[in-house]
Amino acid sequence: MSTNQRGFVQQVWDFFCSLKLTLFVLITLAITSIIGTVIPQYPNIDERYWATISAGRKLLYERLGFFDMYHSWWFLALLTLFSVNLIACSIKRLPHVFKFVSEPALTISETQQKIFPSKDLKLSGSLDESRDTLAAFLSSHFSSPTITQVGNQYHLFAQKNAWCRLGVYVVHFSILVIMAGTIIGNVWGYKGFVAIVEGETVNTIKARNGKDIALGFEVKCDQFTVSFYDAPGGGGPSQMPKEFKSILTLTENGKEVPGYKHARVVVNEPLSYKGITFYQSSYGQANDPSTFFFTVKNRANGKTDQIALRPGSQTRLSDGRLISIVDLTDNPGEGTAAVLSVTDKGTEPKFFKVFKNNPGLDDLRGDSFIFTFVGTDARMYTGLQVNKDPGVWVVWTGCIMMCLGLCIAFFMSHKRVWIVVQHGYARIYGNASKNQPAFMTEFEALAEELQKQNI
Amino acid sequence: MLSAKLFNATTIFYMASTLAFIGFLASRNKTVGLIGTGLAWIGFAVQTAAIGLRWKESYDIGLGHAPMSNLYESVVFFAWSIVLIFGIIDIKYRYRIIGAFVMPFALMGMAWAQLYLPTDINPLMPALQSNWLLYHVITCFLGYAAFAVACGVSIMYLIKAKSEEKGNEAAGGLMSQFPPTRVLDDLNYKAIMVGFPLLTLGIITGAAWANYAWGTYWSWDPKETWSLIVWFVYAAFLHARFTKGWVGKRAAWLSIIGFAATIFCYLGVNLLLSGLHSYGNLN
Ligand code: HEM
Fold it and tell me: Tens digits of per-residue pLDDT, A350-398?
């Protein structure tokens, strides 16, 4: 390699190692990330959005990848630059730090003697005796020292928590671990969706990219239910859903999987089997109901009957009136209601609504019969998000490493103490990598204790 | 409900504390400063009781969840966290005057919450029924509060540095009560050193929760993205201290920008960006 080439390689290396680049990347990432929070992102773009921007602007944004900016080539390039910077910086510095930790400076240099805080001690014993007493003192009050002879002096060196200098590197490494986890998840995992009607069984799901994926086992939806909060002030359920619950049974090769019979899936409590996880995500009615069930309470004698109504046919009530179901409505804020019609002989039919979630309401109508809407024979389906993410544990490991690393980097400190012993005289020096004021208190207490000793 | 009365009392204590601190700034009378701190602590105690009581009341009406589930409750908790972090700093470093630049944040939060936000205890929708909600909210808001304190301290730094530049550092002047710029710069760094790990934990618990609820720990939605932006800004702050010249004034500015981004992440995303995406104005 010519000197020129080496110079160039060196320059490139220095560029990737520089902290200026780190600042540039961090700030650029912060600023560019804003774009995707202001411009809508695929796949969540409302059709109406297109009408609000000009064709030219749409084209420009498309070219720049602004509609899916977190996966655009330039954003991924920034993230790559970020990782390269991190790796290069670590390669450059880590050996020094390792050396610093594993082969600490056992003697204190002239410069350090000038800048590190220190305290003087008078000694009365012989040099060797004093050295041994001081070493014993450090062992019992701080940590055991290493003794080095320098000319006619001895340098006693003791340290605590040297390894916490590596905390920053744990943080940096954890970022790479998290990135690796997301890549693993993207390459070997998938996200998909499946809708299962109550009582039915599936063994494949639809991935986001439209492909069918075989699960390798079967999932049956035993039941899906929605429960609601009680209305404030009582009087039955409100419109506010409390729980969406699917009951699933897993089978493999026709045999029930132990522990997965009638397993429960609710929001925030997914179900996992063989690395595949099912999340409660949506629901709906699978088919049109054909039978509607009601209870009818006789106001006079309190007797309650069950009736079943089918659209298009009439049923006779015990007082001779005819009843039929006319409509089913579902209004926001009101919930599902059946519109019933009751016809007395020779009069116009009377229409009224019976609400599913408000069973007390029909009482207020004042009729001699009080109706409650029990339900229909319609089946529900449950919509499940289905994920496989083999990288997620790598991500969590990275996250835990990051938290530990941050605590080490910020709240632990590498403390060093030297005592330079000469004939009749010694001086103690101290230094800490973090939190100087706290260390000074500790150091002064140590020196004071030392001055009390008779050495 | 009793908790509502206690929250009102809290607001009044924080207002009195803020006024006392302003009085302290003007009068340089140590007793007034002590009163300011005392009022802040009393308000804090009342608020702690109120939050506990609201928690209990939610069980009494059959909803039963931690009081951290809507905007009102989060603003109240934010104010509580700010006073907590200020209190810790006050005990540790005894620079009382910092209260004049931190208590207004707590007061603004409480006043806004009490005057303008609906205070009802709502039932939790299914997605919010998770213990992760509690861990997530606590870590995020303690982090935000540390950043609020860092921002207050940075504003003090800039004022102090400006007056030193002008050379009107007369003995006994208003500025003489401010801690030395060196101390302010250090406090700024210390507060961020507390806030950054908490924010990191907040983002992680949020991701863990999203993973439980929806099966994706990260989906680049505006709230997540903004929390990451805030994280980038403070990471830049931490690294900037290693390169020459990014202590002092520039660090103070970076801290203020960081807090502005924090507030945007907390409120702006909900109030401004969601409006942008709701298309209410298009049809
Ligand atoms: C391109 C990426 C990055 C590079 C090249 C880089 C490099 C560095 C370097 C060289 C140091 C000084 C270490 C020392 O000798 O004490 C440092 C400190 C640190 N870095 Fe990074 N870093 C990067 C990204 C990050 C990110 C994203 C975080 C966020 C968690 C982070 C967290 C820290 C922390 C907490 C410190 C210690 C700061 C302090 O003690 O005040 N780094 N970084």
Answer: 999 898 877 778 888 888 899 989 888 888 899 999 999 999 999 999 9
Neighbouring residues of B28: CB distance < 8 A, sequence distance ≥ 6? B172, B174, B176, B177
Closest CA of chain A from B275, distance in Å:
11
Band of pLDDT at residue B27, cut at 50, 70 and 90: confident
The reply to whether residue B273 touches residue A38, judged by beta carbons under 8 angstroms, is yes
Q: A168 CB less than 6 Å from ligand 1? A: yes
Q: Taking Cα atoms as reference points, which of A432, A427, A386 lies closest to residue A413?
A: A432
Contact criterion met (CB < 8 Å) for A36 and B220: yes
- Cα–Cα distance measured from residue A137 to residue A123, given in angstroms and rounded to the nearest whole number: 14
Dihedral angle over CA of A386, A390, A392, A397, nearest 10: 160
Distance CA B240, CA B252 (A): 11
Contact B126 A403 (CB under 8 A): no
Residue A132: partners with Cβ closer than 8 Å, 6 or more residues away: none
Which residue, among B168, B182, B163, B167, has the nearest Cα to B247 in the 3D structure? Answer: B182
For chain A, the farthest-separated pair of C-alpha atoms sits apart, in whole angstroms, at 127
Q: CA nearest B128 in A: which residue?
A: A268
Q: Which residues of A120-143 are buried (b: 16+ CB within 10 A; e: fewer)?
A: ebebeeebeebbbbbbebbeeebe
Could you read off the pLDDT of A121-160 as tens digits, one per residue? 888 888 888 899 999 999 999 999 999 998 889 999 999 9
Residue B28 and residue A429: Cα distance in Å, rounded?
Answer: 40
CA distance B29 to A176: 53
On whether the CB atoms of residues A418 and A108 are closer than 8 A, the answer is yes
Return the SS3 of B236. Answer: helix
Using a 6 Å cutoff on CB, does residue A22 contact ligand 1? yes
Classify residue A151 by its DSSP letter. T
pTM equals: 0.86
Pairs across A and B, CB distance < 8 A = 116
Q: Which of A110, A18, A105 is nearest to A414 (CA)?
A: A105
- Return d(Cα B3, Cα B49) in angstroms, integer: 8
Q: Are B125 and A226 in contact (CB under 8 A)?
A: no
Q: Which two tokens stand for residue A236?
A: 């039955």
Identify the DSSP state of A66. G
